[in-house]
Amino acid sequence: MRNISRLIAVGAAMSSTLASSFRVFDNTAYTNTSVGYGSTNINWIHAYVCNPLTEGGTIPSADVWKAIVLEWNVYPSYPLVLACEVLYFTSSSTAGLYLKVMSTLQTWAADVFPEGQIIGWYSLSRNTISSLYGHYQELIGNYSNHAFFPSAYTFSDSISTWNKSLTSVINVINTINDTLPIWPYIWPQYHGNYSFIPGDLWQQELELLEANRNLEGFVIWGGKNHAVCNDTYQATAALEPWLNITREYLDTLYGVYGGAARKVGAQLFN
Ligand SMILES: *[C@@H]1O[C@H](CO)[C@@H](O)[C@H](O)[C@H]1NC(C)=O
Ligand SMILES: *[C@@H]1O[C@H](CO)[C@@H](O)[C@H](O)[C@H]1NC(C)=O
Ligand SMILES: *[C@@H]1O[C@H](CO)[C@@H](O)[C@H](O)[C@H]1NC(C)=O
Ligand SMILES: *[C@@H]1O[C@H](CO)[C@@H](O)[C@H](O)[C@H]1NC(C)=O
Ligand SMILES: *[C@@H]1O[C@H](CO)[C@@H](O)[C@H](O)[C@H]1NC(C)=O
Ligand SMILES: *[C@@H]1O[C@H](CO)[C@@H](O)[C@H](O)[C@H]1NC(C)=O
Ligand SMILES: *[C@@H]1O[C@H](CO)[C@@H](O)[C@H](O)[C@H]1NC(C)=O
């Protein structure tokens, strides 16, 4: 009993701490490589797990779903991102059904993780048409410890195109709910061909994310799903410029090795 109440207290404290600081989450899974340097844990249920279970608006049994949540929620009390990419609010004919499915899944998830843990639906904000913003608001109303995790990947060498796309999804999110954390997903590889983006482009993205007052941080994605990440690049990820650049950035962002921190939010645990 004591352990359970402690876990609950930690979860509730984490959700307010997470929301009031600038977090750089490490959602990478490259071979033998993690980011470290004050980055924060995050949990993720991949589309290859969720999509087959929810295709067409089906709902898995509560037991099956709760077991999946426990399997993937490897850092209890840190946010859980649900990548159920077949449950988007892009059509009024399915929105009601999908709202019911997502409400059910997030309620069951909350049954098995610490009270106060944050949930977010991966890139749902980029995939909600304006006439269905009310559905997204209802989804948030169904579980209020919510955050937004829009994708912010790189499709070209143009930082201005990348920034415009980010600004556009932030505007959508602020229309839906302007009080919840926004943590975009970035990826050091091009979305189209998986090769690593140039170091200076990555550096500019990190700086624009930090300067953007609408954001409470961001998530770094990469690796894990071999189908999309291409094994050719998986093992060499640590040799690419992004890792050193990210670590230098985190070092000065949080004052990891001394010096004045620009932001609070370095990971609480080792
Ligand atoms: C969220 O939705 C689920 C599924 O409809 C429902 O069982 C649950 O009671 C709702 N929770 C809240 C807080 O409205
Ligand atoms: C935004 O989310 C917060 C926290 O869940 C909630 O209290 C508020 O009512 C929401 N606002 C809208 C416009 O839905
Ligand atoms: C990958 O795509 C980017 C953006 O279009 C391009 O600049 C780069 O040259 C491509 N790299 C390879 C190896 O095809
Ligand atoms: C990026 O977008 C922000 C917010 O819209 C804007 O203030 C900033 O000037 C833009 N920066 C660049 C380099 O495009
Ligand atoms: C992975 O990338 C390499 C180098 O661009 C390419 O030769 C290979 O065909 C790719 N493999 C897959 C499975 O896409
Ligand atoms: C990753 O670690 C494994 C186990 O220690 C090792 O066999 C492998 O060579 C490493 N790969 C790279 C790319 O360093
Ligand atoms: C980044 O690379 C530079 C030059 O090789 C090196 O001096 C520095 O220690 C590296 N930083 C980190 C955080 O690994």
From TrEMBL:
Q: Which UniProt keywords apply?
A: Signal
Hey, what's the signal peptide range on this chain?
1-19
Official protein name in the record: Uncharacterized protein
